[in-house]
Write a structure and sequence with these properties.
By secondary structure, the chain is mainly alpha-helical. It has helices spanning 2-65, 74-90, 101-108, 116-133, 140-158, 162-181, 184-196, 201-222, 241-271, 277-294, 303-310, 319-334, 343-364, 372-388, 391-402, 408-424, 430-444, 518-529; strands at 456-462, 484-490, 493-495, 508-514. A four-stranded antiparallel sheet has the order 1-4-2-3, covered by helices on one side.
């Protein structure tokens, strides 16, 4: 009888824990949906404002071309005012400068502070002014950062847990990407692959809830069509794979060139710290206005240019000029120090590269004629992968943005080649490079991290195949002394770790760490749980 009572009590405790965990998970999904709602509203509003800004800028350019002699001065002069205002506003929240994605990544490793109440208004207004005035910047970086800020706002209202706050920040960021491009699955994959880099059920469930909710709002207001509306693409025979090999190599090399040129342009901008931010932004927008008078396609994010390429409306002879000017204008724009992302400009550059290779292939091989738009779609994904080094996000993003699923094999093949080439050239992924710069600048400027004394944080990691922790016993695991491994999740089972517990591939580790040591312990965990072929 006593044994039966103990068994019943054990089952009762187990069932109670499961119920509490299920209840918490449902409440977290609801908070994720609230974060997605907030991010979706902000993201859609930002898209609408930028669309209106593009229309105003195009009308202004048409009017300027009717003025003989001095018409080319109209856009630079008005743009200079908008750029100066954008730079002045950014000085109130310096973390909003540039893409904002590296700042979100720094927040998620507890290295920077996020103040949602100042990030959202400054990023929104300054970003709209800078991009609307003609700088070659995209909407996705601002919507990701504003989405992360929206996630934090929800957390501040409904949660007291720091770990849950970080989860909601990541979920809001993914929802921002979903709202920016009508790409909910890409938003989820972006959170898992780029921001959190683990498949925790809370991160996955929250990201799904947030991204789906944000996309529902986006489709309700903007419609259900893909971001790029393209014509029916021609099928790609297997004989085109050698041409895609060339495209993969080209995008890999030029992707590394993009990252290194961007780093160089930011180094030059750092040497101009004597110039106030508003003046640098004003000069950059003025130069963009001059270029835009003669080549208006390169202004702004480049959505219309990308659609023209995908429809085959851009002549092959002008593609190298458009690529070179758009490339250099993107470098100038990002180094101006105002809000704006690089997703959309780099997708435009990838489309130009793909179209150029496709058109050349059509001239050399008659059977490949008319395949330029198909090459352009694949070029977008390959260039994204070479620069960002997040292949799943790039592939899913392009499929959702174009609504094209029929070229999976050449798409995967080209992205694989681009990834291999970029990795072989030894260049850091763009957001990792920007994150390192951001943290180094914050340290040199004396920007202190948020106070974390006596606060604890939950960190999760997954044991990868080939990692040093794979097959290792817990007592032999080399980790800092101030972290505590509390659970190992293996499939549907949760294991309380003991010294002799052996870790297996795919194990999810949950570790409690002091918040002020989270970054260092994250790095230590990564060394033992991730496969590193160089070791």
């Amino acid at each position: 009888m006593r044994d039966e009572a103990l068994l019943l009590k054990k089952h009762s405790i187990h069932d109670s824990l499961l119920l509490r965990r299920y209840d918490y998970f449902l409440r977290f999904l609801l908070k994720g949906a609230l974060a997605g709602t907030s991010a979706g509203v902000v993201g859609v509003a930002f898209r609408l404002v930028l669309t209106e800004g593009d229309l105003w800028r195009n009308e202004l350019l048409r009017w300027a071309h009717t003025i003989p002699g001095w018409g080319w001065l109209v856009l630079p002069c008005l743009g200079a005012l908008a750029g100066a205002l954008a730079g002045w506003l950014t000085s109130f929240a310096p973390e909003t400068a540039g893409s904002g994605i590296p700042h979100v990544e720094a927040v998620l490793i507890s290295q920077r502070e996020l103040l949602w109440w100042r990030v959202i208004p400054v990023k929104f207004i300054a970003g709209a002014l800078a991009i609307g005035a003609g700088l070659s910047l995209g909407r996705e970086g601002p919507t990701v950062q504003m989405g992360a800020a929206a996630g934090q706002a929800v957390s501040k209202s409904f949660s007291r847990s720091k770990t849950e706050e970080l989860h909601l920040i990541a979920c809001g960021a993914g929802a921002g990407l979903a709202a920016a491009f009508n790409a909910p699955l890409a938003g989820v994959v972006f959170v898992l692959e780029e921001l959190r880099r683990n498949f925790s059920p809370y991160v996955l469930g929250g990201a799904l809830a947030a991204s789906v909710t944000a996309d529902l709002i986006s489709q309700r207001i903007l419609g259900p069509l893909p971001t790029f509306r393209i014509k029916e693409l021609l099928p790609l025979p297997l004989a085109t794979l050698p041409a895609f090999l060339v495209l993969g190599i080209l995008t890999g090399v030029l992707g590394v060139a993009f990252n290194r040129t961007l780093q160089g342009s930011l180094d030059v901008a750092d040497r101009l710290k004597g110039l106030p931010r508003w003046l640098r932004a004003s000069l950059a927008v003025s130069l963009a206005g001059v270029l835009g008078y003669f080549l208006p396609q390169v202004l702004g994010g480049g959505h219309q240019l990308a659609e023209d390429v995908l429809w085959g409306r851009v002549q092959m002879g002008i593609i190298p000029l458009l690529f070179a000017v758009k490339f250099l204008l993107t470098m100038l724009s990002y180094s101006a120090g105002v809000p704006g992302g690089i997703f959309l400009p780099l997708l435009v550059l990838g489309a130009l590269l793909g179209s150029f290779v496709g058109e050349i292939s059509g001239l050399l091989i008659p059977g490949f004629q008319g395949l330029g738009p198909s090459f352009a779609v694949i070029g977008m994904a390959a260039y994204f992968v070479a620069i960002v080094r997040s292949p799943l996000t790039g592939i899913v993003l392009i499929i959702e943005m174009t609504g094209n699923y029929q070229h999976i094999l050449p798409l995967l093949f080209t992205c694989m080649i681009a990834y291999i080439v970029a990795e072989a050239l030894g260049c850091l992924p763009v957001y990792e490079m920007l994150l390192e710069r951001d943290l180094a600048r914050a340290k040199s400027d004396g920007i202190s991290k948020p106070s974390t004394k006596d606060k604890m944080l939950i960190v999760e990691a997954v044991v990868e195949s080939g990692a040093s922790a794979c097959g290792c016993r817990v007592k032999d695991l080399v980790l800092p002394v101030d972290c505590l491994l509390v659970t190992i999740r293996r499939g549907a089972r949760e294991i309380i770790p003991r010294g002799n517990t052996r870790l297996l591939e795919g194990d999810h580790l949950t570790v409690i760490v002091p918040e002020n040591r989270a970054a260092a312990i994250n790095e230590a965990l990564a060394k033992v749980t991730r496969c590193n072929p160089k070791v």
